[in-house]
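User: Sequence in, structure out. Go.
Assistant: Echoing your sequence, followed by the structure tokens.
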Amino acid sequence: MKRRNFLGYAALSCLAVVCSPLRASAFIVFDPSNFAQSIIQTIRLLQSNINEARMIANQVISIANEVKNLKSLPFDIINDFSTQFSDLFSTVGSVNGLMQNLSSLQAQFEELYPNFLDVYDPVSRSSMATDAKKWVQTTRDMILGASKTGAQVLQDLPSSQEQLEHLMSDSQGAVGILQATQAGNQIAATISGNLINLNAQLATYTQAHTAFLMEFNGAEAAAKNRMDHVLDGMDVPYTGKNLPENPF
């Protein structure tokens, strides 16, 4: 009997514990669908934050590149370039040769170097001497002009070489598009300047060489003219009084 009462009391105790309101509230209902949805939302939020961080980083890089692109070279050759060419053109302009003025070249050439082969009358000795003196002086002036031009180019050559080396270095270490473009433009300007120097040298040398050739050609033509008339008057009979062969 006592055993039956004990078992009854135990059963009632267990039932009371199970049916207790406090115990019932401790049980949590787990919803897998809501839990998965919360995880997905959290991942999406994290991904959005990462994308936003990347956008900010890209904007910072873009702004930094724009600042670099707006940064100009600390070195330029514009002033030196202008000075060198001003000096060169001043030197070439001081030569004052036939090639300096294309419109008057033909008239000046004909005046300085007349074509004695087309002159029918004999060229006088005084005319030959005067023309030869002008030719020699002109040739001397042209050679002097070519020498001045060459000296001007040689004087500026070390500076041009130094500038080109500096610009090549700047081009290699250019920061941004603006610096690279400026370095490239100035390198192209330096190369173009050297080509202009070369053309100026060739032009003044050609002018001097042409003057020398025309000096030689003029002397030859004058000599040919005089040879054509060396026998003038030999076929005219003598009209003077003849001397006796033996006046004694």
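User: And one key feature?
Assistant: Residues 113 and 217 are 9 Å apart (CA to CA).
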